[in-house]
Amino acid sequence: MCEWAEREFELGKPDKDGIALREHLEQIERQTGKRPKELENTDFPTLASNIWSAFIALSSSRSSGFSGPNPITFSEIKSWMQLTHSRLAAWEVEALKAIDLLYIKVHHG
Questions:
Q1: Which of 2, 10, 83, 93 lies in the 20 to 30 Å Cα band around 41?
Q2: DSSP 67-88
């Protein structure tokens, strides 16, 4: 899950012109008819879909600072679980936090 997530974050990160790497690679594919290797094997790990869904929900409401997005806190996860009546096991919370650390790493360069 973490490898897939990190690849997704890298592909989605905008460059200085605000264009994501994925968009550049898809344009290359359209022009050449050949799929760049960076776009291969990007199948979503369906067994972890609940963790990814929680990450997306929490990430969309994360705060930002001068240096970019802030990490998702345990208290935010707890509040989200209470508000949505969602349950995450301890290992799922740890996985969510690991994915979030990758997100922060990619976005902070």
A1: 93
A2: TEEPPPPHHHHHHHHHHHT---
**Maximum separation of any 2 CA atoms in the chain, in Å:** 49
40-72 pLDDT, tens digit per residue, is 877 777 778 999 999 999 999 999 988 889 999
Residue carrying structure tokens 């990814």: 52
Q: What local confidence, expressed as pLDDT, does residue 43 receive?
A: 75
pTM (2 d.p.): 0.76
Angle at 1 between CA 74 and CA 39, to 5 degrees: 130
Query: H/E element holding 103?
Result: helix 90-107
Categorise residue 3: left if φ over 0, alpha if ψ from -120 to 50, beta otherwise.
alpha
